[in-house]
Design brief:
62% helix, mainly alpha
Length: 89
């Protein structure tokens, strides 16, 4: 069964689309930062499970060390050779 959509106001549709596009980079950045925070929290929990007797300071030290030395960290987490920035979002 096909659903019949109501008529669309083209002017409102395009205005909304432009506003959505303008906020898309900030939305993507917020998502990326939230994912990073979640990943760090997961790694901290893993370190805590693996080192139950470690102090909070030791877990923080191990987490900081992992962030600096994890696979890909030296190259910005990208595979292959680095590429110059283009200035585009």
């Amino acid at each position: 069964m096909h659903r019949i959509l109501p008529p669309m106001n083209v002017r409102t549709h395009f205005a909304r689309t432009e506003a959505d596009l303008a906020s898309a980079p900030s939305r993507r950045l917020r998502t990326a930062l939230a994912l990073h925070e979640d990943g760090v929290a997961m790694k901290r929990a893993q370190l805590r499970r693996q080192n139950r007797a470690a102090s909070d300071e030791e877990i923080a030290r191990r987490l900081a060390e992992w962030l600096r030395t994890r696979p890909g960290a030296a190259h910005g987490d990208a595979e292959g050779p680095g590429k110059p920035a283009t200035g585009r979002p």
